[in-house]
Amino acid sequence: MKHFLYTTVACIAFVGVASANEFESELKQLANGKIAEIVSSGEVVSAVKEQNGVTASYDQAKIDELDKTWRAEADAIEQPMIDEVLEKPLSAHLAEIQEGSGGLFTEIFVMDAKGLNVGQSNVTSDFWQGDEAKWQETYSAGKGAVHISDLEQDDSTQIVQSQVSVPVIDPDSGEAIGAVTFGVNVDNL
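Predicted structure:
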């Protein structure tokens, strides 16, 4: 019985991993093609550089304070901090890209060198992404890094998506200056 139980658990674990990576090849292709083109655009690079100039001196206490404010505003009627980010030209640019993607992109958000949101097509649940793999495994790894999340189904939309994240690279220095995450509807690959 013990052997059966371990075999069953191993099979279930294997099936979970297989479905999590089912679109990995296509998602990496997308990351190295269309996503890389968007991320290297002047709009993205200049917005990240500009925000890095503002947030470079932020310590963890400041980051936590900003994140707490963002999370509180996400459920509030008044959302001055969220509105400020959504009203940036970069956010409008990202919303246009998402809208023009034919349903391929479900969300796009750009993060700075601290993992703080620079711009986004939709409101994120938090302001600081620096504690998450999408930022840590791309920004820290630098040029060529790609992070692909597990597949997740959105209960409200029934869309199956994966998040694809890549670093933003300064074309002058070749160094990572931020990161970008794209929600990708895998049915539209």
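Summary: The longest strand covers residues 160-169.
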